[in-house]
Amino acid sequence: MKPSQHELTKSEWENSELFKNTTHLFHHAARKMNLDPNIEERLKWPKRAIVVSVPVRLDDLTIKTFIGYRVQHNMTLGPAKGGIRYHPDVDLSETTALAMLMTFKCSVVGLPLGGAKGGVRCDPTAMSRNELQRLTRRYTSEISNFIGPTKDVPAPDIGTDQQTMAWMMDTYSQEVGFAIPDVVTGKPIEIGGSLGRTDATGRGVVYALMEAAKYLDIALDENINVVVQGFGKVGNSAARKIEKIGCKVVAISDVSGGIYNKKGLNLDALEKYVKDNGTMKGSPDGDFVTNEEILELPCHILVPAAISNQITEKNASRIQCKIIAEGANGPTTFEADQILHDKNVFTIPDIVANAGGVTVSYFEWVQGIQKLFWSEKEVNNRLWNIMSDAFRRVVQTAEELKVDMRTASYITSLRKLSRAMLWRGFFP
Ligand code: NAD
Predict the structure, then answer these.
(1) Using a 6 Å cutoff on CB, does residue 203 contact ligand 1?
(2) Is residue 157 within 6 Å of ligand 1 at its C-beta?
(3) Per-residue confidence at 2, pLDDT binned at 50, 70, 90?
(4) pTM for this structure?
(5) What is 46-178's CATH topology?
């Protein structure tokens, strides 16, 4: 049973499905590439995991204590980087798995950064803006000794946004005594954010899709139907860019379920409906589908962009698309991967497909340190170069070792990371 959001959970790393799945994939890749067993042993566990209690005065003046985490998995390549998640399912084990994915993601796309993840177990949709501000500020204060521009740089994830980052930056800066914008990325432009960061993950998903289509010799035009799970920062921006390149978004969902219309959706109308009604349910734009049904709809491209463990051995055989572009972290289990591979479904794995977010976060960090800001065009061009280069390197590994794209992405990442770890040596 999941602990309630106000309870301390058993501090174990291995509980979650995502942790089991991620470590399984990691060991599988390690075996395929004959990874040095000492490196494998070291990467099994995070470098550091911080658990904090976050007491918050709610609007009714009572105090509730939430549980927060920041896990730094590996910092060989540079400061740790990873999002902050506010969601009722946040726990130590899932946060650790997500931190591990960040290590592999930064390495596979070639960023000089390590991997981290953090979050607070809470339901942000049930909290007021003032409560969220107090939660964010206290959480930041509790982890402030462990973050910083040269140590660990948080960013937005599920349930957090540029406002959350602005509060984090301000709290950290108040403690130090002067402005330190580079402590977080995904900030508003006015306090040192980068142009192009808000939609970078969705844009990166589409850049990866364009490379995949080229590789598979598929024309991306109005005959291509796309299904997107998740209508948040990643799902919404990916869907809009998919339309921009000429494909048709036929279904999209949020936590309440989704809307399907095989003639194509009107995303503006849907966004307005969600804004007015707080949910997609009831939208007249198409037929209602559940979050389980949406994954099995007939389409050419499926973009899971919500939460993990959505495509499993239970539904993988019913997935009908040709390409999966993983906007979400860990949406597909190891068992499902094998089924999809046998069905010739081409997967662009999460650590490649959704790396646009951390890549532009890296750009934001670099621009902040230099105090020299780039145009949006320059940001997008640099993003394109990094995404297409990473995609090609992973395909090359897949062809060279005759492995699936997921294994290839881990191997490409681990090759670079393990060389760096060997150069640095083992301390003491
Ligand atoms: P978000 O909070 O902006 O949106 C999340 C979406 O998922 C919302 O539409 C929400 O309604 C939906 N959702 C929540 N719980 C769900 C459930 N149980 N079933 C179905 N849908 C559910 O978050 P986001 O930033 O768009 O993140 C989405 C995914 O992308 C996450 O897996 C995140 O880790 C990953 N990701 C985000 C970024 C980023 O820059 N934001 C970068 C890389 C990866």
Answers:
(1) no
(2) yes
(3) low
(4) 0.96
(5) Rossmann fold (3.40.50)
